[in-house]
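Q: Start with the shorter request: fold the first protein.
A: Done. Sequence, then structure:
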Amino acid sequence: MTVLYVLDVPENTSVAKVAAEDPAVTVGRIGPYFAISSDGAVVVDRRSTDCRHAVWYSAVAGVSRDAHITQHDKDALRVEPV
């Protein structure tokens, strides 16, 4: 399972909200983090989040050990299973 962890602060709420729009993605919480998970890839479109670049590039707190970030640029964040 692919899991993306994002700190649950107001600046990052839109990242979790946009990720949750994908029916294959589940958004939960673990401690102070959003746990954004899927059996496949997790993809978040930056423009849909309305995040400024500084917030966008600092949003990732971590990923599960069986996943890796394959894209994190001005367009999207993609985390895929290994």
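Q: Next, the second protein, separately.
A: Sequence, then structure:
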Amino acid sequence: MTRVTFEQLFSVIERALRCAGLTPDDAALCARIHAESTRDGVNSHGLDRIPRLVDYLARGWVDPQGLLEPVQALGALEVYDGNQGLGVRHALQATERAIALAREHGMGLVAVRNTTHWMRGGTYGWHAVEQGMAAIMWTNTESCMPAWGASSESIGNNPLVMAVPGGRAPLVLDMAMSQFSYGRLGVLKERGEQLPVAGGFDEHGQLTRDPGVIQATRRILPTGYWKGSGLAILLDAMAALLSQGRATHEIDGVERGSGTGSSQVFLVFDPQQLGGLDACHAMVDDMTAHLSQATPDESGRAVRWPGASTFHRRHDTADIEVNPDIWEAVQRLAGPGDV
């Protein structure tokens, strides 16, 4: 792995995206989000996604001119059409609008249809808790995972984000409905590492920890087996219902690359109106204190809870590890200097 500073990472990504046709504001926004995801250890949805995003922009699968267009307003619930625009920009704007609705009504729900990949969903959960808000957010995707009992791809892995602010540190869950995302499989394959637990099936229908084999069969394992499969299906249905957009099987019919044409939901709650922010902070702090006192298992590692590793990474001043091949590829996309 190659080590770079945050500033180097941001600068190269920003130049690459400006070369790809984004406005300076959009390039800076997306560069910050991708750089932060990489810093937080989610390279698969940070730096590693830049070549694909540039390709999608060139193909017209992501329209940088596509803006959020109001469809319907029902008090605390609003629906927007994304017009195949930048998924990161749309998701941040939807989060901000849901926060504004929550400050007014106690809760706010913004649903977006016809949008594109939001990259790391946890970005928007962190954005909410940093403003003292709790959140539940999810997206559907094209078919990329077999439903339980199937061998062919028939459901999305439909990432889910949940976040609650704390005094010392928040709780932030960011998970796909597959045991491992395809991005994580790619990272581990590049490193020559096996998965810590079975993550999918081989060509004989047997569970395997080999990420390359799972990439080849496309038979990733739903989290919790049939339970993850069922939750993925219902997240898909609710996203399509609330946004009045496409469900997974309809996204498949207009395939324009991973994550395009998706339906997303941004549900935000204001703790200040639900017992007070101080009470929310105390509750979360008590929970994490309780968890930290649990007896560690045989691995000897500290007990984990959602968001802990990301929180600690954000306070680490060390340089960021990146894949050298991808780093070189993005540098080539960025050109020799200023755009």
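Q: Describe the second briefly.
A: Residues 69-277 form a domain with the Ribosomal Protein S8; Chain: A, domain 1 fold (CATH 3.30.1370.60). The mean pLDDT is 95.
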